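Quick question: what would this complex look like in 3D?
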Amino acid sequence: MSSTTALWLSIAVIGAWHGLNPAMGWPLAVANGLTERRATAVFATLLPLGGGHLAAMAVALVPFAWLLGYLSWRHVIQLAAGALVVLYGLYKLVQPRHPRALARVRPTQLAWWSFLAATAHGAGLMLVPFMLGLCAQEPPARGGLAAAHATVMGTLAQSTVGLALAVAALHTLAMLLAALLAAWTVYRYLGLRYLSKAWFNLDRVWAGSLVVAGAAGIATAL
Amino acid sequence: MEPLFPDPTFHPSPRLAMAAEPEKLAYTALLSPDRSRPDAIAVIDVDPASPTYGQELNRALMPHKGDELHHFGWNACSSALSPLSGHPFLQRRYLIVPGMRSSRIHVFDTHPDPTRPTLLKTIEPEEIVRKTGYSRPHTVHCGPEGIYISTLGGGGADGTQGPPGVFIMDCRTFEVLGRWEIDRGPQQLHYDFWWNLPRDYMVSSEWGLPPQFENGIVAEDLLGNRYGHRLHFWDLRDRRHVQTIDLGANHQMALEVRPAHDPSREYGFVGVVVDTTNLEASIWTWWRENGSFHARKTAVVPPEPADPAVLPALLKGFGAVPPLISDIDLSLDDRFLYVACWGTGQLRQYDVTDPMNPTLAGDVRIGGVAAHAAHPSGRPFAGGPQMTEISRDGRRVFFTNSLYSSWDTQFYPDGISGAQVMCKVGANGGLELDGDFYVDFGKDYGAHQVRLQGGDCSTDSFCYPSA
């Protein structure tokens, strides 16, 4: 597996991880499905949640991608970004409480809530090292499929902002699929009891994964 | 370190709460009517399998005298499981105990030994009034932004400087954060409040200002219809008043607000203490339809004629006892509404399956201004059924007998010795006093609100329906 594929795969896996984390909102889809007694309400809730998540990813990724336009700084940016993500993870480890502003969002403002929840948790930051890693990839040398791939990657690399958006899109798609899986399983099969029995406190695991992602970013840059 | 799993007493829906393990302990607020002793929280064993069943295990004393404990509540309820609130790993562990006369707030920790609550923190009245402009803290609910506490008074010595309202306290540090209201509209009086969290509204009710209750009921104010008689509806996340419903000036004192527990149901009930035109008490149903609120009187309890010779001075001229609905409580399945008639000494059970048409399903009589009905055990019961708490499974109803120290002596001049009794509820309704359950707190203490271990029908709010 080339490192490019590995990076894209990581982005999708992180998407699934975000989708499965209840703090990103799938229990809301269950609640709305049960309240309206319609399965379609589960999907209707997840779509704006996905929209908000996508926006949160873009807001975190695009500035870094844009900065990367200054090629001479590439190394510094990668290191600084990695350090930032590690620090934010450490902060979340020490101070796991959620911002009270989140509780002030109306239950109907799903996209806004999702955007704020993802941003406050540093969900977008978690992707930054991987995106920067992708931007830094040299196009692989020759070969049929590899050459075609290289062309695509080369074009993307010319537009790092485009790459950032592609990363956000793939990540959000994976996030939505995982959230749908979680919400649907609880809504249709497991029942609400599952919420109180098996809802792990993922806050520290989440903070830990921020630290790991940041450290990985630093390691690649060194 | 936060726990890894949600507190086992967090129930996503009302139905799951009903199916959970029954309560083993009850906490009851005790008050010293003459303020000669510190008020207390009594811990009662309500586990039928326990050798000390029906006995008072311990009494946690307040650090000062004269608090006048009234209502109190848990620091967290099932709504903490809401994904929006973002803190599902709180523990239902601390009792928030306001002193209604002192304006002091106590935080008791029920861990590690739930039979021995220990005082964790005392918040002095000066801090509350400085941060919020409010005094006389009363009802406690846990909600999206932390712990919400309603107050009955504003600033100043007699609590009349500025309107009373709701303030917020941090649910982990128990720090008073500030006023909840951003736009209070025409609201000037306060009593109870509750909400529908997913539908994002709050409902509040009105009693009176401190000079109208602290030294006893003011007959001129009552006959002049100057106590509260309105319901207020609020946008919960916006903290904004949206609608007032006036029940009519003769419907004096709209007290307990009980919304349906299932958040997909957009209705609730409120009890009115007395109609000054005919001494009736009434139950009103309020509901939301197309975004606006409505309310209608759906049940009345008539006064009962009595020989003026046996009546206290306040009632002699009427030759009748008003029922005085002082508390109502709704079972978790939204099926039975319990109505405490503190004047006539009756606990009524209404079937409210059709909320617009409550039908009487059961009743018991005990105490009462004129009747003085005894407990089935043969023991006397002073006062009448007052603060009512239903077990989560809906099979047991606990109640105490004191209303408010200065009002107790006006309606029951012989004094009210604190007591807690219990009714058993049939599977399909019907109500019977349990002859074996009688907790006697002695003549030095009055008994007020009851809280059950693991949550109860007047503190838990839910973010998921019972589907």
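Answer marked as accepted. Chain A is about 80% helix and 0% strand.
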